[in-house]
Write a sequence for this structure.
């Protein structure tokens, strides 16, 4: 009986519908920023076009590759797939950087912040929905786009090699499943490793009135220069550079590159080193700093209106 | 219960005082016009009410502290600033999806109903709509929200007169039901005179005048004085006088209407004329006002 009474109480108003502010805030980000998926898709298109245009040379290249000993054989075949993955990942990284820098700036520039703030969505949910884009959405999208691109490449090369009877060699030599696992691991670890970078960019975008890129970069350059002049060291420059260039040394066992391969080859699961990564103080310090930047961005958005 | 209650509401930007500690009480079911020149503190007051700007002093909106409970407050408060705040990249259908997704009191079917009466296409991006259509869209979104307080900050800025009239007509006919409270600021004062139940003039961060429209009509009278009676009329101490077609139009405060009727044609002044009388002269000739 008491339940009925409770339900009838808010009858003066229309019943409160359940809402999903976080989900819709993330969707809003994807509507506003189609470049999040368009840019990696375009990179994938360029990769596939290149793959198509060079397909006629493939039988010849494959015959040459098959003459090599097994490690270098695999490296030669894998290289194309690695280059494809790296190009798409690099594009996605650039998109994530510029997205983060503009996420809290664009809404002030176009005054739409007044509309967003007129909705029952807290600043915490808003900022977190923006932080989730470079940290979760972009890596996931990148994973899917790279996987599909590599699958299409596989089909193109198989078709190109079919006439010379070599189609089976790719499938026999290329460790398809292993490469997926490595890609997934690599994307997660680099997102976590770069978290303070994205947090900083979010914060600067919310803080600066204009020239967000300069605000994001110049303070670090200035600090690095001061360190160099005063102490003659370059620890800060090294630290910052490491955040930007990524997690490779932290998350993987680096091996000698096989000769003839132009990119570092990671194709064995034993090269993944999650324990080293998780026990790296750099990761945890970075995550704490990222949390601090994001908390500051949330606090700051309360005070922000249109520019 | 009062919808808005402020005591000593103050806000300064550096050394510029935008709100000099105002007291304010807006009862439920009122339509308050907040009138003032540019930079008077209107928008600052509204921003404080909406939880967009921090403030000093006490302020409760629907019983809540807007600065610390903005997201919770916005379930019961709607806000239309000028027409440029809807995100221009959004499609109309996305705007409907988004508000339906985050607002617990939004009735999507009702919003679709309002939109059906307009030319607005569901697939259009907001940047493709005319200013008037953007205002219609925002109003459709807001009117479909079952809110207790609606705040309008220059909602019809830049719209032509047909859209402005339609805007206030739908607000009154389709939205206002006597239990909601509306606070509106605008420079097009004459157009909302018949809409308001209460009036507030604000200047230099202070409230200059605060009255209901009944009080306004009872208190102020405007007389087009026959030249023969001019000296007699001046003796009644008009608060303002202006010339039109060679006749003097005098504005009186707290003067008996029957007494005024003997001097010429008596009518209720426009809000704009009272505004000029109370503020225009002070601004242009502070020494004359000091007398």
């Amino acid at each position: 009986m008491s339940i009925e009474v409770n339900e009838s109480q808010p009858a003066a108003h229309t019943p409160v519908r359940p809402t999903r502010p976080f989900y819709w805030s993330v969707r809003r980000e994807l509507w506003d920023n189609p470049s999040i998926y368009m840019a990696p898709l375009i990179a994938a298109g360029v990769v596939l076009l290149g793959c198509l245009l060079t397909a006629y040379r493939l039988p010849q290249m494959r015959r040459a590759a098959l003459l090599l000993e097994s490690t270098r054989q695999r490296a030669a075949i894998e290289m194309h797939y690695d280059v494809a993955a790296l190009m798409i990942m690099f594009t996605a990284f650039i998109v994530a950087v510029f997205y983060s820098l503009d996420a809290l700036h664009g809404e002030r520039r176009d005054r739409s912040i007044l509309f967003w703030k007129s909705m029952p969505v807290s600043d915490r949910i808003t900022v977190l929905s923006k932080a989730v884009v470079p940290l979760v959405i972009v890596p996931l999208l990148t994973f899917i786009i790279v996987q599909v691109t590599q699958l299409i490449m596989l089909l193109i090369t198989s078709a190109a090699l079919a006439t010379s009877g070599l189609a089976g060699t790719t499938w026999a030599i290329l460790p398809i499943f292993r490469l997926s696992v490595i890609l997934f691991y690599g994307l997660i670890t680099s997102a976590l490793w770069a978290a303070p970078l994205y947090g900083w960019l979010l914060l600067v975008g919310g803080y600066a009135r204009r020239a967000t890129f300069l605000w994001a970069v110049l303070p670090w350059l200035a600090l690095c220069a001061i360190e160099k002049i005063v102490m003659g060291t370059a620890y800060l420059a090294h630290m910052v550079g490491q955040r930007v260039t990524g997690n490779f040394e932290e998350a993987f066992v680096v091996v000698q590159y096989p000769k003839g391969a132009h990119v570092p080859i990671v194709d064995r699961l034993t090269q993944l080193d999650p324990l080293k990564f998780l026990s790296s103080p750099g990761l945890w310090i970075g995550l704490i700093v990222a949390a601090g930047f994001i908390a500051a961005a949330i606090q700051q958005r309360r005070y922000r209106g249109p520019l | 219960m009062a919808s808005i209650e402020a005591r000593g509401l103050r806000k300064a930007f550096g050394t510029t005082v935008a709100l000099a500690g105002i007291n304010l009480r807006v009862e439920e079911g009122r339509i308050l016009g907040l009138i003032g020149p540019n930079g008077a503190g209107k928008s600052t007051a509204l921003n404080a009410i909406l939880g967009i700007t921090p403030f000093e002093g006490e302020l409760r909106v629907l019983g809540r502290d807007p600065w610390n409970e903005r997201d919770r407050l916005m379930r019961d408060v709607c806000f239309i600033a000028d027409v440029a705040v809807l995100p221009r990249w959004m499609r109309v259908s996305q705007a409907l999806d988004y508000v339906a997704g985050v607002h617990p009191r939004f009735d999507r079917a009702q919003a679709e109903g309002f939109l059906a009466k307009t030319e607005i296409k569901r697939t259009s991006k907001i940047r493709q709509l005319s200013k008037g259509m953007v205002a219609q869209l925002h109003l459709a979104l807001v009117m479909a929200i079952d809110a207790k307080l609606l705040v309008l900050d220059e909602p019809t800025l830049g719209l032509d007169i047909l859209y402005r009239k339609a805007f206030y007509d739908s607000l009154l006919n389709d939205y206002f039901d006597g239990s909601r409270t509306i606070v509106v600021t605008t420079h097009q004062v004459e157009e909302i005179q018949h809409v308001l139940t209460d009036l507030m003039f604000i200047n230099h961060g202070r409230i200059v005048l605060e009255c209901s429209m009944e009080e306004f009509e009872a208190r102020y009278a405007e007389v087009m004085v026959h030249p023969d009676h001019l000296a007699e009329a001046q003796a009644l101490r008009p608060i303002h006088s202006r010339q039109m077609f060679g006749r003097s139009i005098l504005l009186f405060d707290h003067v008996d209407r029957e007494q005024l009727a003997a001097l010429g044609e008596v009518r209720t002044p426009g809000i704009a004329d009272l505004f000029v009388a109370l503020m225009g002269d002070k601004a242009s000739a502070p020494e004359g006002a000091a007398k």
In short: Residues 2-204 of chain B form a domain with the Rossmann fold fold (CATH 3.40.50.300).
